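Model: You mentioned two targets. I'll fold them one after the other.
Researcher: Yes, keep them separate.
Model: Target one:
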Amino acid sequence: MIKVKVAVSSKGKKIDDDVDKLFGRCQCFLIVQIKDKKIIDVNPIQNSSSEKIGGAGISAAQCIAKENVDAIITGNIGPRAEDVLKQFDIESYRGDGCIKDVLQEFIKGNLKKINEPAIKRKIVIPTDEKKGLVDCVAEHFGRCNTYTFLDEIGNVVEIIDNTSEHNNGVGLPPELMKKHKANILLCRGIGPRALSLCNKFKIDVYVYPAKKVEELFDLWKSNRIKKANSNDVCKEHKV
């Protein structure tokens, strides 16, 4: 039996009202009890902090803490109010739209935490040499000479030799990329085994026959390459 108590900043007193994006100055909070992923009770409470000249967010956070909730769903929340909530181990989530729908997304685990650090993307491209953005994209993903790593705005971060077992080294290419914290792979082709390993290591793969590193990166950055799946692999390549 799993019980969760959630507060939602609301524009009204009903579950069909919308989430109020202003945490400290919302009209009221809905205190929602969830049991075994089902909503069993909804109780509106007035937000006495909404008319405060200053410190509305902190005051509202203190009020919510007294309700012994596990989480708050709102639009935006200030850092000082967030600090108060953290003191009481109350997680804050961002929600928008009808509260009833937002709660279902919360139950499914689809809401994002407010102020959750964004995942930085590090892109790796198999290359022929060490020429950076003007280098040629290697024909074969696993047997390339080097791997060029870029940040998400296209700056070259590092270029490493391919020290995998395909170049008389140790380990597989996806293991090498994971070691260097890559989470995006752009390449001209990839085998089914390598794609499976990339998926295991949470490295998203995009395949396109571009010739230059800069061209391939620009195509990915502008969303003109779709994420690869089993239909995009090179069947003749084992890795």
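Model: Target two:
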Amino acid sequence: MQSRALVGPAVWFLVAGAFLPAQAQESPPQAPPAAAQPAAPPAAKPPAPPEPGTPGSVEGEAVVLDRGLKLFQKDRRIEADGVVCLQKGLLELYACGEGGKDHESILVFPFRAQQLQLGLILLGLRDKHEQGGGGPRFQGDPTRPVGDRVHLSIEWTGPDGRKETRRAEDFVVDAKTGATAPHVGWVFAGSEFGEERDPGTGEPTGRKIYLANRYKVIIAIQHDPTAVLDFPLDAGQNWAAARFFCNENAIPAVGTRIKLVLRPPSEDEAREMERIEKVESAAKDDPPKPVDPPKKEEGKPAEGAGASGS
């Protein structure tokens, strides 16, 4: 992976200057007194540091990127605080921003998508724009996303107070196998810029806008060119061929507060991700198997199974 210079957290300095008065020269008795010189303008004050908890502020070893989003540059990881918003059903996204498609995303986050993009770049990761472009052209395009691979895990506290950690893929069931999605990682695709339009008239403003901000697409399951992160495997081009949905046995209850941890994979993890993707490519023409989501309890039918009417 091409390395890039890492940028350290901002450090604020306040420099106090002292000026010695110039020594006065004696004038001849007949000379008039020297004209008074105008006072020098006061030195400009340096900007105040950001308020705690705001973008650019420092909390311990972390730099705050946005609401609930922190960069730990020394450890090469990002932590994002979010909430579970879906526990069952088919998936279009894995994570969205507030006001996004939380009815078909597992997680919702309060931060701006552009700030996650910034954090991943500061970790030295490259998106599709730095790798020659390519990737999906529209939502559901089977073309695989382009960009560096990212390791994602989820941390939360269970009802019994026990700390839980799972790979992000474990929250997803693969209809082709009936098992959890393989640990293939996630692609830093990097979203796109598009034309900004006036909300009142719908006419172009002449400015560009970061599309992940507009559509609140943070992590996609079904390939999406506007997503910051995308799943590398083909999720199907429409609902009839949908491949991935919620793993009800793994996802904690709706409303549970979680922490998403993003980092570059280790060398061994990267090799395993590559191996899984090669296996997937060899079998990409196999049709998905129509399976129901995993049942929450033994003997309990999936939602709507065997039921009639509303």
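Researcher: Noted. Anything on target two?
Model: The first strand starts at residue 58 and ends at 59.
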